[in-house]
Amino acid sequence: MTFPFRHALGLSAALVALAGQAHAAPRPGAHALDDVRILSADAMEGRGVGTPGGAKARAYIVKRFNEIGLRPQGKTFEQPFTFKPKVFGKDVTGVNLVARIEGTSSSDKVLVVSAHYDHLGVRKGQVYNGADDNASGIAGLLAVAEAFKARPPRHTVLIVAFDGEESGLKGAKAFVADPPVPLEKIGLNVNFDMISKNPRNQLYVSGVGPQPYLKPVLEGVARIAPVKLLLGHDTDLHGKENNWTQQSDQGPFAAAGVPWVYFGVEDHPEYHQPTDDFATVPQAFFKNAVATVVTATRALDDDLDGLSRAAGR
Predict the structure, then answer these.
(1) Structural domain includes residue 127
(2) Which of 4, 6, 183, 226 could bridge to 288 as Cys pair (CB 3.0-4.6 Å)?
């Protein structure tokens, strides 16, 4: 995550069914812990954009896309982009990964589900592994992909692993500037960034403040979530630093007028430190957070047409 501090709509029938079947359903994201462990290993060299470590992480995610049975949006999953670094030097090439899952309905609305895979790389000989930031979000993204492949979504879904987030949301900005589908067709961006660490069992979902029509669906998810799912961090009420709207990859979507939802935890001592390792991930909380974002994404997909109408799209 990049930051300096760190019409009423009823619940869908599918969400109600999920609530009733939660005790019997297998936990989603069976590979999520392994995904975080592998992506945050020293071998990935901190997954810096434009580095060999970033390329290793990208190869692993493409491997997982193929294992899940995803198809690319376009000829390949890879969608490269270039940007100039903040300091003097050569242009940097990042690579977004974009997969497509066809929906079952006739709606032309598209749901974009995203997380960034880059982190800070190696600094002064120390590897910044970024287990929470954001190997955890990629694991959640892959779990959503697994869920939608097992039971297809109502709407076409783009599964997007962004690069260059830590350099100023570069991958998301490139995607929004040259989208693979028209922006007006994107009904919602659901973004995951840092979903694995909170000692109070709290996961935040942002987006309701500026988009109140999202509230019924997200409050419905909160009632059945295995974590404390709290709504907030999407206005300047408690200071601009507590407004996460522009602090991760949902920011460029919001700036372009595309509705968005963001899931993440509050800042913690390992944020942007070399101690953000797999060993510091509380596994029970993380598994429950993954289950929560899978359930929430399904519910948002089910109600996407109504949410789009409420948003005037």
Answers:
(1) yes
(2) 226
